[in-house]
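ok so I'm stuck.
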Amino acid sequence: MRTLWKIACKEDLYPGMWQRWFKNQCVAVGWRSCWGYTLDGKAKNRGWSTARNALKEMKIGDLVIVALTGNRIGRIGEITGKPIGDDQWQPLVPPGPKLKDGEMGRRILVRWDLTTGPDDRDLVVQMPPGHTFNPGELRPTVSRINSMSVKEVRNIMNNPNNWVSLLGKFHYESALSDYIASYPYHLEDGLLPHPNKRIRELVFKDKSRMDVLLMDSHEKPVIVECKQYAPSVDNIRQLRHYMKRLKKETGLKSRGILVHGGSRKMSFNVIREVKRKPAVEIVCYRLEVEFASSLMK
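replied:
not stuck anymore, here's the structure
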């Protein structure tokens, strides 16, 4: 059987790295040879020692999964070539200040499986709760995957409910809240900001405060709670807490909507919590930006 490997893609350090890997049909690691060893040939860095051993064990025909931050994965690729010697160095990050030799230069050539996962290369796969790699597999830059079969990984990748945008997120929850407050009808047709400013900006007696308060087409208050990532049981309970406080302090019975930036598929515990009363709605968002040429005289 072919071995399944994981290689971490450092999008946080080198933005756009996953797109470079995709375009160049490769994955890569760093640790330039000249500063990876001592004079007697031993690896200076423990991380490089682990990665070097893994690279030596990789075989042509093995499979590689691209791991991104936040328990997300990109594509599966079949290894078609790998560095023969430590002197091979083709940096995907060009040389520059404090990067004399560039970075990400140890390339492993792959053939991407374009039949598994999203069709859109701007989308990646969010691994659902309970179906993630274990810490020992996630921690190293390169590791062998034993906790999951290739079939299990493919099933997760082929479920559209797990597809999320690579970079399309509001950086702060406050930015998402501001957007919904300004354009509430994008969330639901007929939603408007609550007309009473004192209620809209109400701080409850326990010092807690709603993210956004709107009014629907039936003139019923709608409390919106915003989260960057996948919803949790605590997030739902927090929203219900606001609904109860609003009823207690103003007499207004409200609806609750939790907006999040995770995948559409939710964990079993969250689904079970959502079904309890009072009912709340769960909505995931995808951030899209359009560009148009500016008019010039």
